DNA sequence: TTGTACGCGTTATCAT
DNA sequence: ATGATAACGCGTACAA
């Protein structure tokens, strides 16, 4: 059985192709009677419109790209995908995930994007762009919405959490608990600056200074490579803890860039027979599931909702409307759990 | 600047459209000289082939659907997606994720799939199908590959882990450690049987029986609802632990259906001042990152590699070849960590 | 409200 | 190896 085409349906319903097209897409100017006839004919012929043919004829692809930084199987990226999918799918849009791992891939991605005509819009998450890239964004010729991008330049709309404010509240928590020396532990920061990892690092620096910590009271320790395999994470964490504990007078307040990373550091700390909050305080960032299972104090964000919001902005832009809020900054709120408490005596 | 079309390139290169098409797709029968001319013309006009137009003309969409059971933001599903993407993207295929949460959505999905002509193949993960669905699969009219599906019926190819063998090895571990009574804790099993959650439950039952456990020595405890939010997970786990500990003589060997679920149960157990492996042994399934952070004994599987393999089978099928192995069953291997040990005395 | 007819940008068939 | 041309299946002015 060859596939039914729109003209088969037209013939079966006794109307023209154009009317079938209008009826099936819920367009106006179709009488209820004809619409019913057409729908029935389509149903009995087991027919739906071909997305590719529609795309070719209309110019709309009904697809939106989701470009994430790094692998798709992290809690954050997967949750954003879920959130985007949730609002796009009911509207008939496909969500096409993509990711790049280095600057070269990113450049090629942006170069091919506009001419491929394979998507109507793009959502870009967690990228740290230099100005050259902002120009590329504008040249894309389609709506571009940013998610947790440090700058709004080049984006038609964006949503993100207020990293700076969140980290400030974290720093202030540690200070109010009496921690005289504090540390920030973070992932590897690649030189080509594709990833957005440095926003929180910078935020910690300034927050600590503002809270009155001197340069000697702050220690920043980053991973020295970018191998994210679980096994390597433990090794990385071990190295970080070694550096942490070998400070002349080691920090007792620790903030981590993400919950996953913090969990590894925390684990190594326990392996050294140190306990939180007895011997130190430690807090993560994200409120990922692992922070719950560890009762880790953290800063809450909801990537599913960020994805929802980004997708809604895309939809508005695609309709030619302005999003309710063009550039939105939502707070990440402190969640107190069991790993933070008063600084140990004498520190 | 209007977009360049294939005929613009043809004109610029001084050849016909047909030749441009052949040259740009790396087809045979194009002289190196013309190919170079064409490529250069395309480059200078900033041209690439339109996927939609190609699809319409050729019938190939260069897209494959990935249907997962449940949300995309679980470790397993996100990892499968990553694995599929990794092998499909270099070949020029888009990976389109989709998921359904109940039987009705699933039926509609399958009904619309063949007539939408929006994908060349489909990968289906972790679904428990009844026979009616197997027929629908065959009627899809495109390659269908299964991933961790309990049966191979209806699939053109499949890959999955050997749940039964893995669970048997887990049960035997507990028995060899001296646990006289054992329990299996698992997620909610919906009545419409869309999810594949029952495979491991059934496997545990038979493995326990074969290992010599009597009916009174086995306790199965499932969640009584399907709310997977992190906060509810803790509540669910609390209920399960309550039931576990209020048994006449409670089991000391516990297996969980997944690491995530097991982690929640384990946490509640610790909250009751019970410690593993001192008071009980507990093991998970999957070797998800959380099992590492908890040093949880578990059964290892690698969903990224499963995704890779499934995608490779799709590619083979699409080329009209037979996959290297049509139906593949890979072992899930026991990973001994810190939460299992000899049964407490007197039990 | 409905129909006519053209165009969307390729691929594929058949010549040459 | 290359060129002409007919599909591919739909959207959309424009006309009726």
From TrEMBL, chains A, B:
Database matches in Pfam families: LacI, Peripla_BP_3
UniProt xrefs under InterPro entries: HTH_LacI, LacI/GalR-like_sensor, Lambda_DNA-bd_dom_sf, Peripla_BP_I
Keyword Transcription regulation: yes
Keyword terms of this UniProt record: DNA-binding, Transcription, Transcription regulation
A GO molecular function held by the record: transcription cis-regulatory region binding
HTH lacI-type domain mapped to chain residues: 4-58
Name the record gives this protein: LacI-type transcriptional regulator
Species for this entry: Bifidobacterium thermophilum RBL67
């Amino acid at each position: 059985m060859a596939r039914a085409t729109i003209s088969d349906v037209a013939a079966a319903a006794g109307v023209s192709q154009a009317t079938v097209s209008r009826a099936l897409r819920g367009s106006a100017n179709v009488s209820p009677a004809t619409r019913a006839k057409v729908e029935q004919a389509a149903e009995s012929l087991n027919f739906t419109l071909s997305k590719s043919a529609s795309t070719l004829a209309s110019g709309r692809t009904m697809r939106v790209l989701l470009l994430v930084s790094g692998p798709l199987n992290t809690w954050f990226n997967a949750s954003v995908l879920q959130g985007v999918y949730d609002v796009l799918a009911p509207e008939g849009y496909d969500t096409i995930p993509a990711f790049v791992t280095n600057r070269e891939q990113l450049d090629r991605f942006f170069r091919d994007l506009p001419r491929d005509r394979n998507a109507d819009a793009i959502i870009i998450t967690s990228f740290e762009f230099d100005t050259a890239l902002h120009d590329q964004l504008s040249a894309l010729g389609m709506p571009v919405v940013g998610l947790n991008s440090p700058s709004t330049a080049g984006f038609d709309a964006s949503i993100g959490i207020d990293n700076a404010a969140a980290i400030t509240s974290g720093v202030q928590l540690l200070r109010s608990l009496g921690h005289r020396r504090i540390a920030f532990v973070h992932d590897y920061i690649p030189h080509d600056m594709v990833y957005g990892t440095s926003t929180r690092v910078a935020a910690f620096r300034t927050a600590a200074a503002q809270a009155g910590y001197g340069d000697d009271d702050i220690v920043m320790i980053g991973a020295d490579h970018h191998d994210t395999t679980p096994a390597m994470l433990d090794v990385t964490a071990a190295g970080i803890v070694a550096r942490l504990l070998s400070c002349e007078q080691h920090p007792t307040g620790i903030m981590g860039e993400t919950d996953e990373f913090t969990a590894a550091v925390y684990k190594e700390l326990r392996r050294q027979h140190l306990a939180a909050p007895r011997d130190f305080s430690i807090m993560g960032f994200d409120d990922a599931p692992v922070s719950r299972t560890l009762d880790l104090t953290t800063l809450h964000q909801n990537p599913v909702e960020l994805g929802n919001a980004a997708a809604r902005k895309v939809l508005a832009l695609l309709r030619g409307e302005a999003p309710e809020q063009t550039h939105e900054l939502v707070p990440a709120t402190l969640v107190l759990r069991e790993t933070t408490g008063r600084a140990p005596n004498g520190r």
